[in-house]
Queue: 4 jobs
Job 1
Amino acid sequence: MTQYIVRRLLQMIPITLGILTLIFSLIHLIPGDPAVQIAGEGARPEDVQIIRKSLGLDQPLWKQYVTYLTNLAKGDLGRSFRTNESVAKEIALRYPATMQLAFGAMLVALLVAFPLGIISAIYRNSWIDNVARFFALIGVSMPSFWFGPLLIIAFSINRPWFPVSGREEGWKSLVLPSLTMGLALSAILTRMIRVSLAEELNQLYVTTAIAKGVTRGRAIFRHALKNALIPVITILALQFGSLLTGAIITEQIFSWPGLGRLLINSITTRDYPQVQASILVIALTYIMVNFISDLLYGVVDPRIKLE
Amino acid sequence: MKTLKLLLKNFAFTAGLLLTLLLVIGALAAPLLAPHDPNEQDTARRLEEPSNAHPLGLDDLGRDVLSRIVYGARVSLRVGFSVVVLASLIGVTLGAISGYFGGIVDTLVMRLCDILLAFPGILLAIALVAVLGPSLNNVILALATIGWVGYARLVRGQVLKVREMEYVVAAKALGAKSPRVILRHVLPNVINPVIVMATLGLAGAILAEASLSFLGLGVQPPTPSWGAMLTSGRRYLGLANHLAIFPGAAIMLAVMGLNFLGDGLIDALDPKYRKEIR
């Protein structure tokens, strides 16, 4: 296992380096001179030159790239064009909000998908199964930027139970954004649990357990469900990564002060160091989450040899 | 004909086909179907609720919402088709070359795929649009840049299997040149999954365009785009809910239709499923 972890970590190095290079090149492709932008329209050429020098933009590209990597290694993500503050500071402030939203969405997905998926698998092709399947279908097709406003109309405007936006009202603020982001995931999980459990229920070991006098409930929950959960846990971990990108839209809908909103605001204000750092942090978190979900494969299913 | 009959027996495919036809006809016949000019403003009647004259109401500038939704279908389809055509052309070409020749080309293409796949797709599209500037063409370019990877990997995998087949070996033995072998013998045998992927990719591209436009990074006003309509509608929630409800419903129906179509194709093109139907 340790060997596998080390090898996977080593494999991540070229991919991470590739991503860093991609982000670096993207930002350097931007038409126009960032120094002119910081100095403002109509600034004196001397002032622009001073800014260019202070940002290291007068250096050759490869040197800028090396400086970029060295600074990153030291945890220096650069300074915001807009506030001149460290962009890492702003990200540290926003990161917990995005994580809170992602976990909220995951909780919603679990609370909805588990009962629905299990009931659906046990009572296959019954009316309740049809309802669950219809829900799953709607859930995967409904864009979050539509579902969010619908929730706002229903539960913030028509019945003022939850705030329209922001993060000031504690758990109440978290409910609608989590529901918005959790819908698609709960739909995917419901389908997954249904298929996976239904397959296990058809296995001989379940029939044997029942034949030997185990109650049906025990056979389902103690025997079949345990095995059915293996692919579900993996999907859950993999989907956590996509929740991070989903947060970009959900945070915009509910003005949630997270990383996604910071990214979009920075794009609007053309604050490129902030854009670069936000993209980097989201992408690296995504890679890390996927790496952990890979490891989970081996933990939840000892049959899978991580060779 | 036999295949079409088989496909039409599949509920998901038929439902998807109907919704998709509605979308395509709406887009093609927009000038005939739209009751009003989508950019004609009547500011005195802004945010007006749905009525007989304006079945889906008027927006914040007094423009007819129904007409804008009908014209918005054009934008969605244009983006969808352009992205799918571009991405599949690049992906299929690179995937075929990579799988057929192997070696350094294969390594290079696959490592590039690994990097792009390790990067969340929509995030890369956002980054690209942020760099290139928001416009319809840049959205297409950004989505095609992230979209080709799936096709390349799919086709490469298929080509690896097909290139060992006897008919390919026979074609080579008869002296056929590599481009001819790839185009005439290899690609026709790997195209089915590409068609399915393209259908689902169309839905994905429409949704991605709507997402980018919703974030203000896509199609710019006054061009009617469903995502952008939803963004401006969001500002009037509580005052004029119809501005957010109808464009969102259009996106959902279009995406659902194309997903159904893709799912139906998967079912129908799967031989095991064919047996069940017979």
Note: Chain B is about 75% helix and 0% strand.
Job 2
Amino acid sequence: MPPLRAAWLFILGVMIWVTPGLKAQETAGAGDALFAKQCASCHGKQGEGTKRHGKPLGGERSLAQLTKLIQETMPEGQPGSLSPEEAQAVAAHVFDRFYSPTAQERNAPARVSVVRLTVPQFRNAVADIIAGFRGHPGWSSERGLKGDYFKSRNYRKEDLVVERVDPVVDFDWGTEPPVQGIDAKQFAVRHRGSIRPPVTGEYQFIVRTEHATRLFVNDTKNPVIDAWVKSGADSEYSGTVFLVGGRIYPIRLEMSKAKQGVDDSNKKEQKAKPAAPAMLHLEWIPPKGFRQVVPELCLATNGSPEQLVLSTPFPPDDRSLGWERGSTISKAWYQAVVQATVEASAWVRERADELAGTKPDAADRKAKLRQFGKHFAERAWRRPLEAAEEKFLLDTVFASQSEPDAGIQRLVLATLQSPAFLYQCVGNNEGPRAVAERLAWTLWDSIPDMELSKAAAENRLSTPEQVRKQAERMVADPRGQAKLMGFFRHWLRLDQATELSKNAKRFPGFDPALADSLRQSLELQVREVVLGPKPDFRRLLTGDQVLVDERMAAFYGADLPTPPGFHPAILPPEGRAGILTHPFMMANLAYNEETSPIHRGVFIAKSLLGVAMRPPEAVAPLAADLHPSLSTRERVILQTQPVACSTCHSIVNPLGFALEGFDAVGKPRTTDRDKPVLTAGEYLARDGRSVRFSGPGELGAFLAGSPEAHDAFIQHLFHHLAQQPERAFGRGMPDDLRAHFQSNQFDIRKLAAEIATRTANPPRQVAAQPNPETRNPR
Amino acid sequence: MTANHPLFTRRDLLARLGVSAAALPFVTNLPGMARALNPVAANARKRRMVVIFTPNGVVPKDFWPDTEGPLEKLKACLEPLTPFKDQLLTLHGVCDKVRGDGDAHMRGMGCLLTGVELFPGNIQGGSDTPAGWAKGHSIDQEIRNHLQKDQATRTRFGSLEFGVMVPERADTWTRMVYTGGNKPVAPVDNPYQMFKKLYGQAKDRAAVASVLDGVAGDLKTLTGKLGTEDRRLLQEHADMVREMEREIREQAKDEGRKAGHPVPQLEPGVRADNDQMPKLSRMQMDLLVAGMVADFARVFSFQYTNSVGMARMRWLGVTEGHHELSHEPDSNTAAMDKLVKINNWFAGEIAYLLKRLRETPEPGGQGSLLDNTLLVWTNELGKGSSHTLDDIPFVLMGGGLDFKMGRALKYKKVPHNRLLMALAHGFGDEVKSFGNPNFCKDGPLTGLRG
């Protein structure tokens, strides 16, 4: 099959209908009227059923199946009386309004459900219980690692010659000394600091050097790579370590150009010999990622304590509503929990003395460990223990073992397997502690830290101002940054597993390395806006600057940046739309060779403007190679001409067309198949106004100022943070948040803090049907 | 690797298990259990090997029997082995002829079980050129791989590497077992860590089982406080807890039925320090015997300290370090007496192991564990003061390979590669050469079966 046809077949998956009724784009008026006239008398106005026909409308049939069913069986007494068009219109109305699972989910009364911890929350919470004893790591503003250069073979303080910051470890010294004042024949180098991996998974670290080397990641005692014994001609070593994304770990890289063991070096002999060459490169292959020098962005010069990382694999959380939530229990999840708690308990046991501040032969060791156990449980459960709980955990579980270490291990198991740990805010759903806990899940995907717990204990979380103050602090914390960046990664589809690749003949030079640069550039650019001094939402969608490194500069035609690394540059054409026209977005929302106005339009409609959509039924596409003379724009118009398509594609296509000035790799173009590219587009806004724009600059400006886009952004962010339906927090929430956003210069960080503040005290849940067995006798 | 305290790190453990924690399903049937159900395999005789290493050479005149043939009265270094004289075979004249980079202690250790040169590297000894790791795998791993290939001889671990007071540093002096070139294996010198390796899964399951009831109770209490929609989630959770309880119970029954051996009890809190060496030695030996009974492995190594080992055997009244004593000339009779005492102590430890093996019946088989096990006691040097790699002390013990025991054999400077080959052949692994092929031309060492 020629690639072009394959591409067109793929388009099946993205042709879309707009779900009517939610937004201004009402498309099923005919179906609505027909339903009211012919169906509602039996099925009820909202398909809820009537006395005569009690069963509410709802089921698993597809739209096509439902159409057939209605055509053949409805209305009662006169089946077959509807024309095919009428049957289709009624079916579409029923399907979208109340029949489909999506519609049912939408129509169910929104409520704040009891949820278990999501997988990231579980991992973070366990790590942060420990961090509570060892201290939470910081993230210095200085990127890179501290590099210490020694003139001896080991790290003797008096032999330290140069101490500097190396943004990356990527050196070919050859036979030269690495720094002035060191003999090229014998020296040692040590890099240290912290590393923050972007995503969760297995990281393969690679060190390239001809000399002795050791790499420590997180575990400061046992190296990931140990080639301190130099043996044979190998000059590349690798080791794998599982890391949780967004967290901060200590890292130390040692390299020694010297003999180890007995130092019998003959000074005269040594002088006569030429120096052997030396290099030192620290690289990694992130999960599903590309081999590269460990980037500056992920390194900081400050030290940090070892983290408890649970490497037990978990099944993914439910994401059916577009955001992660802990709404399901499966056997795979439960087994993973058990395995992970075993892993955690063994880890704690091994370090129990250090964590409890005692020593193996201390007289008060048992008392100290007991005290530690109590603190551990209180942190894990986010509240003080009740007397009965304390008695159970300490007098039964801890004391059941003759060895206090074994007792701690059991206590950790019991604590972490308890619903008090595994569920959000159960047995803790009112008052300042519940507020603290909700803030922490919302902004950190983790448990409250000491400061937050203290604020709760001192009753400093009772007014919205007090809560907001904490929330703003938390957004700025590395954990808050990690959760925010997680949102943008998802929103901009940076986290998609699919590989970004292009036809090598058509786009020579677009290789995995460049694709990775694009990813990093976009992430950095978002980071600069979101975490920088001016976190204005509108800046995301406007502006001509792109962060460009050497690879991107060479490919897209910009001046080579000096020094190497990412620097802002202006890429043609003029009038770009910020991250929307970033080369990553343009390339990612395109095919192997051709652009895809539909992909681009769907992204804008769905992710930026919040138009609710669902995948279409299969429609046979036109074969692209049958229309070689058509431009992409013309092909898409021809393709989506049928009435069934056009109602929806009339929204999507013109949005995507505005970006036709970028080809499938995000380079500017003025012609497509020898025809001039037209970038005119339009959008029918919620208020009924028809907005026209030509080119990306105008499109970006419209989006940045559109209340629809603001609402959509707020709603996406809300769901990512709170992981509960926005509607469950009251009808006024969207308007309140929009007003807040607008009056705060569209400050993204303030918005996140505001969402956390407003969800920290959710409406009280009333038990619908109290369980008679356990009802409190009064 | 010696920790400062009896605890150990997760990565150590996992590295030695050769798996990540993630790869271990929590409730599982252990590999090797299938064999118990295989009647043919169950009836076949098990063969095992234990390589025991002690460092710094010996005092030859107080070690080697004077004459070839049936063993007469054992000399001072071997004297504690007297009750097992009929189970002993001493091999004089077997030499480590591997040369190349590295000093004698390094080559003595790194080439001892591999029979192959060391890679050039950065580890500098007292003389000679620096070197790295050995270029090939060791004979115990060769035999392990051979046994693991066959379902009938496959065991959960294949091999277990024990240590006693091995220093916490990885270099050519501290490693004798290699899974391949540049791939040394660290012996586990912490008995608690070895215990965890052998019995950890079962212990973890027991610990989990002990907390499940409380968890189920908490879920029930909590469920009562919730509305109908939220209750479903916790009820599903509670069902999972009950299911896990059942599965653990069944697994424990299953394992009890198949294994049927008691888990050894270790004295708690024994620290890894020099003066505890006698205690650590016995704890490790008890674990080794338990590992044999449970059939966790068929190949074992047991490494006391390291090449250039520095143990100070104060419990014998010897205050100097072993290595420094071993450099003393023969004329220093006080030093020689101490070296004899040290070697005598090692022999006493080995006698303890032999005793345990002899008094333990072969599970499901004939005779004792000792009847089906060959022990190979060896050393990185022939003699400490000369650093010679000639006449490496090789003392074979036990009936595992049907060698004719109760004898002293004398060879004329044969390369030790031939002995390594003979060990493999004894297990039916008919290697054409092992290590450097130049030393293997005359085939496996002859004369062992009489």
Note: The first strand of chain A starts at residue 17 and ends at 18.
Job 3
Amino acid sequence: MTALQESPVTGPDTLLKTVTRHYDPKRPSTGGGRRQGHGVQLALRMIAPVGLLVLWQLSSSRGWVDPTTLPGPTTILDAYRELWAAGDLQAALPISLQRAGVGLLIGGGAGLVLGVIAGLSVTAERVYDAPLQMIRTIPFIALVPLFVVWFGIGETSKVSLIIGASIFPVYLNTYHAIRGIDRKLLEVGRTFDMSRWETIRLVVVPLAMPGILVGWRYAAGTALLALVAAEQINSQAGIGYILNTANQFQRTDIILAGILVYAVLGLLVDGVMRGLERVLLPWRATHDGN
Amino acid sequence: MTATDLQHDDSVLEDRTDHTGEPVVELRNLSKSYGEQVILDGIDLTIERGEFVALLGPSGTGKTTLLRILGHLEDATSGEATIAQRTSVVFQEPRLIQAQRVWRNVVLADGGGAASKRRAFAALDEVGLQQKATAWPKVLSGGEAQRVGLARALYRSPDLLLLDEPFGALDAFTRRKAQDLVLTLWQEHQPGVLLVTHDVEESLLLADRVIVLGGGHIRADIRMDVPRPRDTTSVAFNEIKREVLAQLGHVSPHLSVDNPLHRDHGKSYGTTS
């Protein structure tokens, strides 16, 4: 593991204690996991998930757990095959994705606009920041019954819930990102005769972009959460519909299959947001972007 | 700047040495106060194009305030100020926009077309940083970032160049190189320069005139006639240095002569605003 051979000092007459280090370029240097190859890293990361999967499969095939409580991974794969063959999954996925996507775009867009304006204008902040902060403290799931009364049990109430859940992460992060910009940099704009719009375009937005993207990433997460909550309301289509139906027929395998779809969606959304950050924030990379 | 000007590489950055002598700063009875506190009290000052003026004074005497008024960053309370429209500032910190590439930081709002890019590259070439033009600011060293700040100021072909302690954060060696660079650029483009500094030797090394500010007034306006390059060990240099130090000593009697500014009532060195 270490390239160092430390030789303790043995001379009894030495008053000064020293440690001599011998560096050998042929031996790998210290640094633990950092210097591990990608293959080794990946293998280490896979140990826990693969181990859990094997344990899960064993527990069901050996009959340690009642299969109606927790069906094994192979049973869930069969459930996917069943859902796919019946066309349920293909029908449900686009509907759920559309609900989450539309809600996220409208809610996040509104949060972005409100956040940018509040970040730039003290007047705007005074007008609507306090009420927004108050509404923000309400857990959005508590609004489900109210939204059903207001918008019925159709698409409107579902998308509205997702909109409401996605506004605040984007609003808050955008507002704080803009307020966090060093005033000295805004002065540069004044010194070099930039118009207000040029300052926003060239200084404010690029520098606030990391914070804005964090807001969108959070919003995407909450949009998915809101999707799950919204789809519990008498769904006639979507992943939630599959879950509700499976619930009525006590099909634990299909319920688990549906939950895993939500999980994969969450991972995908996070991956997309990370990709966006890499594309939009090249200046934050460790190396020169050339 | 028309398109034909860009035909020749040498003329990419405008040079208007023929206007030397015209006043780029004219202050008449200029005052600035924050509430009860008077920072500048009846300042009269003229700086001509091509003139290199250094502004000295202990912390809190309004050096930076004066520079900020000249840079259109602050308004004076009373008096009259006529200032060249084309004014560039180099700040104490580089103040680069991390989210923009180096050459974009030089261009700023002046469009992103091929002509402005060439001008930016020419300005970066003058400060010896053309090879970093497309890099991100975060890869620059402190000295390099400050030189980009200089290129950004130069890009505008300023009639008045304001330098707010631009070398304060640099190590001694880098500072000397940056001082030489400023001198070269000034001699080439001949803007009026106002350099705010704490460093007596720096002001005497670079400037034609050294102005000592104290108590809101101009305490001294000393002409520095020693020809460049200046020898800091020469008799003439040290005579003027003694005079300036005496003027600074007049501002605060507690200053010791060998190292006057470090005893500035315990005030921090960098905070002048």
Note: The beta strands of chain B are 23-34, 37-48, 52-56, 78-83, 87-90, 160-164, 192-196, 209-214, 217-223.
Job 4
Amino acid sequence: MDPCKLTAVEIARAVRARELTAVAVWEAFEARIRRYNPVLNAFLHINTQAASEAAEIDRRVAAGEDPGPLCGVPVAVKDNIVTTGMPTTCASRILEGWVSPYDATVVKKLKAAGAVIAGKTNLDEFAMGGSNENSAFGVVRNPWDLRVVPGGSSGGSAAAVAARLVPLALGSDTGGSVRQPASFCNLYGLKPTYGRVSRSGLVAFASSLDQIGPLARTAADAQLLYEALAGHDPLDSTSLTDADLAVAPDPVVRPLRIGVVREFFAEGLDPQVRAVMERALESLKAAGAEITEVSLPSARFGIAVYYLLATSEASSNLSRYDGVRYSTRAPDAQNLEELYSRTRGQGFGPEVKRRILLGTYALSAGYYDAYYRKAQQVRTLIRREVAAAFETCDLLFGPTVPTPPFAIGALVDDPLSMYLSDMYAVVANLAGVPALSVPAGFADVGPSAADGVTADGAGPPPRLPVGMQLLAKPGHENTLFALSRLWEGLCPDLTTSQATDYETSEVTP
Amino acid sequence: MNPAVLDRYEPVIGLEVHAQLSTATKMFTAVPYRFGVEPNTLIDPVVLGLPGTLPVVNREAVAFAVKLALAVGGRIRNVSRFARKHYFYPDLPKGYQISQYDEPYCEGGVIEFELPDGTRRNVELTRIHMEEDSGKNMHADDGANFSLVDFNRAGVPLVEIVSEPVMHSAAEAVGYLKALRQILRTLGICDGNLEEGSMRCDANVSIRLRCTQKLGTRTEMKNLNSFKAVSDAIEYEIERQAAVLDEGRGVRQATLLWDPAQGQTKVLRTKEEAEDYRYFPEPDLPPLAIPAEWIESLRGQVPELPLALKDRLISQHQLTPYDAEIFMNNLEVAHYFESCVNLANQPGLAKKVANWILTELMGTFRDTGRIPVRACDLAALMLLVEGGELTGRNAKDVFARMLAGEQNPRELAANLGLLGSVAADGELEMLCRKLIDDNAAQVDKYRKGKTNVMGFFVGEVMKATRGKADAAAVTELLKTLLS
């Protein structure tokens, strides 16, 4: 039995049943990581303690204990989530070499659930980007096509799960950073209800939008990891108590009412993605779901609102990287001013600088009302419109991303187009509701010739994943998982689709 | 202060006071704080602003802040908000300070105080808000190419109390400050130590021609870490601004640093150089809800304010304003005084208890900061004297033993053989008669008009009764017998 072909649910069961040892599981995945990571660049750090953590799981199982729901399952952690014993870089030079003295709450929860921490995964610097090209430590490649981006910012986590270097990974989602790479890598990617998963130990990008979420190849795996993460944390004042959330009704008792968001099918949607969405809706309708159309009129302002609020908060959150207490300090500063400007000038990459500048501007005296305050007002409108839509629907539906995955390098000089990749995803962050990207199908061809990549037969098949996005009411993650189970029954081929195994020799970067 | 300046100009002063709340732990994390501890030992990941850390509001700090609001009669917002105030400085770990901005937890309120001449003033407050303290930069000797930072103080809870610009002299400013400190101490929420920085004051000063209403351009002075500095700096600044206006120039809006050694201010930054703090609501903290029931339960914990105490000591216990003020400034002693009076529970005794405390106990309290005698013991002692069982003179001897740690004055006095008056029985008269018979020469002197011989007789009686006799009664008796 090759552990790398099992789901997380199967691994946990097998290790608990002593059909597999956690050590054997880890050794199989570690071998795969060592073999493919040089190509994919998904991991920035492999946990050197993983084997002994796995051995401890085996010892506990042998002693008759239950180490928890993730018993012996290797889980990769996005490198903007702090871990003791391993560096946390946020894929930024400014944090290179820094090791946190404390574990993020989600990391403590993973350990408490019996998981084996596989290592830290690559990302866009400080989670700012949608392609993983903004990492200070190199681009990540999409296992479905090495010429294509894996999405971002949780690109390393998505590539690792898609290539079966781990069964599960943590991502973080501020404006689509779990769902967009899930869409690009044919995975389930969940952005939980804001406040459902603790942010303590998640290096802040935009505090009012950030949520940690799972990336998995099956809905059941995503749910398994999500349930291990969710819950109130006294260290995070924005985390919700169970009492804060209404208990979700059992979604199986009646046909799911799915509202198709009109604004998610407007201008800018790639025809191939549209076609995949239409086929998916037909299948769901045939399976008994009630399909209606809903409108979120303010959703068209989502990107503008998101990039004002996220950059404002980022400009504040990233103030602490000053070279005084930690982080890489620029040498030879002659005075305090130079210490700051050189440390930050040398330590941050161009996209991070761009966002700090944008956010600083939006919060400046004289501009605050026109930008930050106005954006907050529109955010309130979006939140209300989403809540109103849920009065008649259980789920909202649309594509996760307007386009199929694009080629590495295609958008690096066009940040605005890159930002538009998040146009459907940001709505859930702004509204605080849970959203799941579900593998929905494939675009027939890869990136267009105009992007410089052709399906000339030299590479893998020009077939790239497309995800559909479902939004639910706050706290109703289980409705998303219920729909996913229904969907998996309809389209079993999608979840069994695997990214091709790549040999290092095939890659010509 | 040149009085001619004040003839022409009216100073207008507002104060911003930062007070450290003496909570068990810091504003947003469970780390304690003490002054003067080894640098960087009272820290944790939150204090240092490490990546991924989040603030959690200290409930005790909010309770302290609410008590202050209640004590000064401010309006407490049911829902207030924390905000981030941004600037770069090495002692500010996150690059922003968590403070409150346009939705502070308290608005309005008033502080009443007395000037040294006894006149009373009310100073209205603009607002009070909560925030966190910064660390401290420590600059090495001149020539060193580095500075050090101590983050022990970082994250200590502060309240900032902002007064309206309604004071008109340095004396008023100092009176206000002293009253505010007294209130903070009475509430037990801040030790008010200006030198150690647990209470810090910035003064906004402007002047205007008398008979005009429009406020002049103000300057803000920092580093006023004593009452003298507050007073000196304000007077200096009033004169400086007057000189500027007298020359026909305008005062430039600026932040100034007071140099107590030179006795002058220097410009820290001008209005043009003022920082844009880019305030925005703190996204890591939900709006701060302060439920009405909690406010009400805290109201029950707000003690009587100093000036109210003073007024009550005068009206209820007939103390002099002078004595009442001493008690007001030494709250522990005031509470002790009232305990004694309550325990003695005898009408008319309060003034005597007050006198006793102020003359016999205050010195020890000032020297040691402690009151070594139990209130019930002092009450018992006062009752022995009041009941005629112990003379005032002997009570002092008993009290000396009590100061040394002994308890139960009745037993003490009995053991010393001082208890019980001899004035009531015939014993005293017999003693006096024997004395007169045995000392014919002295009697003769007295009768010839040398009345100071009386001292000799009284002394002999006291010796013979081991002090139990009442000296006044003995004198009266002797006078009768000798005449």
Note: The first helix of chain B runs from residue 3 to 8.
